[in-house]
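INTERNAL TRANSFER SHEET
From: sequence group
To: structure group
Subject: E3 ubiquitin-protein ligase PEP5

Please process the attached sequence and return the structure record in the designated field. Keep the field labels unchanged so the import script can parse them.
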Amino acid sequence: MAAPPSASAGASAEALRTFSFFDLERVSDVHDLANSPEILRNATDISTVVSSAAGLLVADTHGSIHLLKPDFSPITSWIAHVNGRVTHMVERDGILITVGDEDGVRASLLKVWELAKIDQRTGAPNLLRSTKVQPGNRPHPVSSIALSSSMSYLALGFGDGTVLLYRHLDQSLFSSSSSLSALPKPRTIHESPTDPITGLGFREPDPIHDTAATVNGSGAVGTGTGASPNLHLFIVTTGGVWACHVSGRGSGGASAIVDEVGCGLGCATMDWYRRNVVIARDESIYSCGIQGRENSYAYEGQKTLITPHLNYIIVVTPPSPPPRGLSARQDNISESTRVTVVDLENKIAAYSGTFSEGVREVFSAWGHIYVLANDGQLSSLKEKPTTEKLSMLYQRSLYPLALDVARTQRLDASHVADIHRQYGDYLYLKGDFDGAMHEFVQTIGQLQPSYVIRKFLDAQRIHNLTTYLQELHTLGLANADHTTLLLNTYTKLKDASRLDAFIKSEVRRSSAKEGGGGGGRGDGEEELPFDLDTVIRVCRQAGYYEHAAYLARKYERHEDYLRVQIEDAGNFGEALVYLRRLGAEAAESNLARYGRAMLNSLPEETTQLLIDLCTVSGPLVPAEEDEKTSGPTRQQTTGASYLAYLALKGPAAAPATTVGDDTAVPPSPSAKTVQAKLSDSPTQTAEPSRTSTPVPGGNAPAPAAPAPPPPRAKRPSPCLYFAHFVDHTAYFITFLETVAHRRWGQSVDAPSISATATVSPSTSTMVMADADGTAAAADEDVERRDQVAVWNTLLELYLDIPAALADSGGGGGGADTDAQGGAGAREKALRVLQSASLPYDPTHALILCTSARFTPGLVLLWERAGMHEDVLRFWIDRHNAGGDDANGHASAEVVRALEAYGAERPGLYALVLRFLTSSAELLTRHKADVERILEHIERERIMPPLGVVQVLSRNGVASVGLVKEWLLRRIKQSREEINTDQQLINSYRLETKTKQRQVEELSDPEHPKVFHVTKCSSCNGQLDLPSIHFMCNHSYHQRCLFGHDNECPTCAKQHEVVQEIRRNNERLADQHELFLSEVRENGFQAVAAGYGRGLLNLTRLDDVSTM
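Return from structure group:
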């Protein structure tokens, strides 16, 4: 053995804690349960044991190799070295390499076997290669062997300190060469004549395990060559440890010393990551990397063997020092030997047990550790389940060690989190709340946050709760409730600085991600570690309006921002400016919600914003701010007024000023100049984005290349904002008048603007400018309905303004002022009704005028609707009601209306005649009018005399003398008409009797017809034979008829006229609508004419022809 290490090395070693993670079980033969497996009973004959993918390989001192099943029954056996012994074996991917001695051969023999193929002649695996290995002229035994995982490199260590390296072994084995000795020429890479080779191991270039390697305090492996992709070979001697660069850049050089402390034979092995070499000495166990010694573990006592098993190192300790010599393994040791299973990563001894008969071999196979005693007894060390091992650690409160074990066992995240939870509970019960919170933070993502939150809801532990909640948000696993709780902790602590840091720092982080990714606002918002809606809500509830507004503005939560500024902070000015910056679409939806509140606070500015929103299709802010908006989606509105739902009886919100001539408006800065803008439009400059129709006659230069116009942005319907103007009648009138003027070019002062009128650039998106036909029919229909709704509402507002009734006297000065204002408004209402171009609903206007008792409007609407009788009855009712007809105004209006409408509606004369003769006063006042009416009735024959008499005789007001002359004239005319009619009747009767006699004569077969005609009725020539005589007393030459032998040509023309008349009457009989229209005009005359023409009793010509 090498000399002991320095004192400093021993002092830095870490002691191992002992546990019982393995259970010892005795292994019996499958056929003889009382004894150990048959092949292993003679333990002294076992030379080496190796686990392989094909099974367990057991070599004996007789040169044979046995391949065993998991129950240790043999699969196959063969003699590998005749009359010799197998000293070393190594297997990779079904390729077995053995080193052994044979009689008659001085040097050791290296043989390569292919386990998957069996030689049919010998029954042994296929022998690929067989050659002698000898470093020099004198043979030396092979003391160690190592094979890389890819089988590219094979290293052999000898007792004289020499190391041979075979390169590209895999290529040689699978080449086409059939020579058994065709192996690459070995290269001597290390020589140490005084120190024999006791161990070899390849450091594999596996980058997956780079970070898992054990690192010393300076982090040499991690920062040095720990991530090197090159292959290195560790060479262990009794005097030190060397590392040789085998493959990769810089390979081929001499080996470099890693540690000056070596070990005995069998006391060196690679760790389970195959990254570091582990050497066992009497005072400690060391781990060495290619940069030097890394870790040491205090474990005193002599060691005869170490071998790896998964993440463990199995250490065999003899009861007493072995005899001095090269080999520490002796066959005659029969005293108690200790086997320890060490977990170097976690610095624990997972098992420690003694074997009284000594240990012959220790090997790892099928996931278990097997210990072969010198007496042939085979024992198995089976690892306990991880849960059981963790329970043992929990009982001793070794939670940090349990975490290390869980990571080594590669448990999933849920199991590791459960250990952190138990550790946190343990620290919580001990009162270490900071430490407990540190552990609970590690459970985020696996443990329900409510489990931790309930523990730290106490006010004294609110700081720990804040830490946990912050980490939840950092990992993006917080929900709305967690955000609420975190913000409540900030507000409860009055910690505005941490609240700022939480909100604004996260915003900056999100913005940075957004800028880097280029994903846009939506991507940045998705990266937020908190629920934005919840943060805004909690900040509002806690009174941190500035923070809530900051987040809402930053992430374009327009509704939240306006809700904070209007409902919470009351910053109506800020909200108004923000709405202008939003553009039409967002402003439309938000004003529909907050318009009323803003009108109550800033009526002038809000009214102007609503006007701009409904009339301007471009940005709502100055052009230099370059804020673009998108066109909103419009909703169709009906033309009905919305004021039926509003209470507009309150006082006006502000004193009114004027726009144009006499329009009452509030003192809005932009509303004052509406008329000026409309008149001075040629001098104004408008951006192309804010106009869609050029101003005719303007001086703007024409563009060089005409660009296609941008799509027209739809403007919201003014009807959306009607409800906001409750108790703001004056501003409502201003809004409606300005919108109608700027949007459609309609005004009560100038209602007859043509459809091609030119307006200022601010109104360039009017529907009138759509005369080119580019606007869709649906949009035009919506605009038309909006116009109707606006003018219906304006008409209602005009009529709703308080005013003294026209027929009642005024009182004090205040009443006179109201009467003047009301009279002006009603004058506007009358102008609206008189306009032929303003689009209001006549039916709705009629209801409004009736409710407001606006007589001029009512009469005007009745006249336009053709309701002439209603006009007359209105004035009649007005007269009958009295009070306002002291001077006969109502009765005069009745006579005037009769003169106006009587020509079209003759039936009105009877109504007026009945009215004028209803009282002596009326008859006295309108006696001349009554006489004119009677003359008109007589002239136009509107009423029969009896009807006039009945009208006048219903009361005792009219005397017989009033109508005496009229009656005499009517009676005389009637007698003359009777005489004339009687004479016509007599003539018709005489003609009828004559026709009847002729019919009887013609139809009597017993009285023949004698023809006395001597001349032809066609040529007037003397009749001669052949001639044809007709019953109508017409005779013709046969030659003059031209084939018309059946019908008299003379009478046929008359008959054709009669038949044509009957055909026309027959066609008219099917035209029911025409007949009904005649009945509506004069029913009796139409029915009588129908009977006269035979329309109602017509016999079809077809029926006549069939008779």
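Handover comment: The first strand starts at residue 14 and ends at 15. The CA atoms of residues 203 and 275 lie 5 Å apart.
Transfer complete.
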